[in-house]
Amino acid sequence: MEENPTYEKAFAELSAISKEIENETISVDELAAKVKRASELIEFCQNRLKATEAEVGKIISSMENPKE
């Protein structure tokens, strides 16, 4: 994965890999590498979503319970 990947770039790459596999445009020789890369991208996206959810939760909580 690149040094500072974004969710959007990772999701776009994952979508491209998915389309290649669905359309059977990927060779058998590349299949394992593409599936491994897809797995890495899925993990990255899941972690990014969880981190964002936690951060948004903290922000909302601080808005609902401001320190006086």
Structural overview:
With 68 residues, the protein is an all-alpha fold. Helix 1 packs antiparallel against helix 2 (28-64). The chain has helices at 7-22, 28-64. It has two helices and no strands. Belongs to the XseB family. Residues 28-55 form a coiled coil. This is Exodeoxyribonuclease VII small subunit.
Q: Which key phrases capture this entry?
A:
Exonuc_VII_ssu_sf; hydrolase; about 70 residues; single chain; coiled coil; Exodeoxyribonuclease VII small subunit; EC 3.1.11.6; mainly alpha
Which residues form runs of ≥5 with pLDDT under 50?
none
Number of strands: 0
> Helical proportion?
over 70%
The major sheet is characterized as: none
* Overall spatial form: rod-shaped
Number of helices: 2
Radius of gyration, CA atoms, in whole angstroms: 17 Å
C-alpha end-to-end distance: 44 Å
What series of H and E elements makes up the topology? HH
| Structural class estimated from helices and strands | mainly alpha
Rounded mean pLDDT is: 91
Instruction: Provide the β-strand percentage band.
Output: under 5%
Could you give a short description of this structure?
This protein is mainly α and 68 residues long. It has 2 helices and no strands.
Fold blueprint:
Blueprint: H1 7-22, H2 28-64
Helix pairs in contact: 1-2
